[in-house]
């Protein structure tokens, strides 16, 4: 009797096949009724706006740090001036409400010229040069320029070129105003020296306010005069305007 063949048990291999569920981001993008390129463009625009906002905040923080360093440097300079024995007839300080300084602080002085042509009712204001201006920057220099206008009308406002990193700029610029002689004797000429700042407000170093009724118009006037402290109203107006300009330039 032949033995029955033994059957070996066969092993069945079970392969587990799993279908991966789609990711959250692709499924979320599929629900948006826009083409993929439009969605990516929107995301890129949002990221760009966030970067611009962060950069503006960093610039603002840097400007605040520069102001603090400038105040400390100005205090050191004023203390050195007290110990000296020189008799400087030049004056120089700051312009903000917190930075007005006392009247004996030095601001510098400005040389200007005045000439009035009666036949054509034309006033020529010459901004010649400035000397020993206050150092407004942390490096011990300033970027000065001069703004000129006439009150009370203030119809035209002129500005000289900006001179970089100097306390003794030579401007040699002339500005002409058409003004009747009657109005001339009732007007005030304002010449303001500013320190230019690219990313923050422009600091006023000092100003000269000249009552034109006191001027002898029979000859050309050319003289030096000390810069005085800016009026609080002018400083506040300048701060508001410069802050608005900074906001628009950052945005």
TrEMBL record:
Keyword list, A-Z: Membrane, Repeat, Transmembrane, Transmembrane helix
GO function terms (MF aspect): calcium ion binding; calcium-dependent phospholipid binding; clathrin binding; phosphatidylserine binding; SNARE binding
Gene3D superfamilies in alphabetical order: C2 domain
Cellular component GO terms, alphabetical: axon; dense core granule; plasma membrane; synaptic vesicle membrane
Name of a matching Pfam family: C2
CDD domains, A to Z: C2A_Synaptotagmin-1-5-6-9-10
Secretion signal span: none
Biological process terms in GO annotation: calcium ion-regulated exocytosis of neurotransmitter; synaptic vesicle endocytosis
Protein name listed in UniProt: Synaptotagmin-1-like
Membership in a protein family: Belongs to the synaptotagmin family.
Transmembrane parts of this sequence: 37-63
Domain C2: 106-225
């Amino acid at each position: 009797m032949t033995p029955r063949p033994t059957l070996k048990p066969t092993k069945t291999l079970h392969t587990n096949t799993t279908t991966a569920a789609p990711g959250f981001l692709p499924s979320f993008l599929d629900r948006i009724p826009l083409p993929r390129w439009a969605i990516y463009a929107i995301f890129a625009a949002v990221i760009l706006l966030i970067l611009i906002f962060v950069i503006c905040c960093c610039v603002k923080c840097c400007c605040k740090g520069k102001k603090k360093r400038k105040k400390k440097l100005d205090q050191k300079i004023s203390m050195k001036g007290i110990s000296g024995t020189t008799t400087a007839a030049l004056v120089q300080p700051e312009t903000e409400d917190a930075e007005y300084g006392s009247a004996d602080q030095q601001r510098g002085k400005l040389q200007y010229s005045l000439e009035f042509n009666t036949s054509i009712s034309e006033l020529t204001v010459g901004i010649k040069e400035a000397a020993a201006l206050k150092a407004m920057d942390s490096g011990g220099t300033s970027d000065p320029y001069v703004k000129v206008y006439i009150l009370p009308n203030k119809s035209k406002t002129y500005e000289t070129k900006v001179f970089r990193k100097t306390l003794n700029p030579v401007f040699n610029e002339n500005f002409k105003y058409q003004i009747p002689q009657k109005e001339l004797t009732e007007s005030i000429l304002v010449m303001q020296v500013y320190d230019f700042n690219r990313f923050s407000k422009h600091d006023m170093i000092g100003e000269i306010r000249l009552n034109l009724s006191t001027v002898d118009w029979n000859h050309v006037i050319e003289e030096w005069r000390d810069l005085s402290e800016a009026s609080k109203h002018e400083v506040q107006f300048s701060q508001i305007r410069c802050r608005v300009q900074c906001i628009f330039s950052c945005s």
